[in-house]
């Protein structure tokens, strides 16, 4: 692979919030302290060198970016206050922007006003749209969007979701292509040929590392991971993820039961009904995780939470809003007379959820995808090592 130097890389990363990186004297303390940095997967110093030397392709082709869990340990111990953990977070945001088409992520990673404004406009638009559309169908009122047919709305929604799915696939392929190129491999090396253990790698990436949080749980030695279990970083992160997946599962199960005609009889669905129970428990777990994460960023409790990008806030606020509105809807359902504000809350909840989904490839939400891909390639590492040696910034 031809090596290209981008002299603007350092300045670009600064726009993503990587402040202090120029203070680094390359002492290597951060890599030594990072309990997740092992063998050939050296970070964060390796990443810092890439940024200092303008090695843009190598930076964007680094799976190591996604092996870091932002514990902040390296920043706490850096003698130069070069904030290596913040550099890793900024580089991930930079990668999200560069993997996605048209660099739309720029809007959410660099500009707090524009990103926040766009997300707010989307939520307001979808809320008004659904409210007036429903009113139009129900009582011929408020025909703000009455000129649009129901079929068109349905097809537009479907097209938007398919488009987001396709964009997500493109971003994954882009990421894999970049990692393969930097390591003088081709993308098919990650699935075929000598890589007969790809199914095992997939299991490890999805079940063991992502759902089971094994590396974060067992190997990350950040001080916060030694606190009471419910305050540990890995648990707060896992609570958010498990809660989110539980809510998705409950929604899908509810939909499925509806289709096959199996559902609770009458208007009142008891709290112990399986989908309601799974949804409520998952929602509690989810709200706990997101609230703690928001609190830590708001209070900047440690180095890892001292620097936040607009994308971090937008992602967490949308998650929190979707969770809290879900609970308000549930409360309204159990109140006598099913109050009207419960319906408005439902519309707002759906609008927030649609916005969250549509922004997936462009905000911090995308890390959920990229981390799985990186962990998959990480699990393939022993086989990938049979190929030519990776690039080095040292
Ligand atoms: S970021 Fe800090 S700890 Fe890491 S190599 Fe640079 S100066 Fe040393
Ligand atoms: S933030 Fe934590 S996991 Fe990431 S590089 Fe620093 S010490 Fe390692």
Structure description:
With 394 residues, the protein is an all-alpha fold. The chain has two domains: 9-101, Orthogonal Bundle (Fumarate Reductase Iron-sulfur Protein, Chain B, domain 2); 106-382, no CATH class. Helices cover 63% and strands 0% of the residues. The protein has helices at 9-15, 29-33, 45-53, 56-60, 73-77, 84-99, 106-109, 112-139, 150-182, 198-211, 214-219, 233-259, 274-299, 310-334, 340-358, 367-384. Helix 12 packs antiparallel against helix 13 (274-299). The longest helix is centred in the middle third of the chain and has 33 residues, at 150-182. The model is unreliable at 136-142 and 386-394 (pLDDT under 50). The structure holds iron/sulfur cluster (SF4) (2 copies). The site of one iron/sulfur cluster has 15 residues, from helix 5 and helix 6.
**Helices and strands: which structural class?**
mainly alpha
Uncertain regions spanning at least 5 consecutive residues: 136-142, 386-394
Measured by DSSP, the beta-strand proportion falls in under 5%
The number of helical runs is 16
Percent in helix = 55-70%
Any idea how many domains?
2
- Total beta-strand segments: 0
Task: For the record, give the distance between the C-alpha atoms at the N and C termini, rounded to a whole number.
Answer: 17 Å
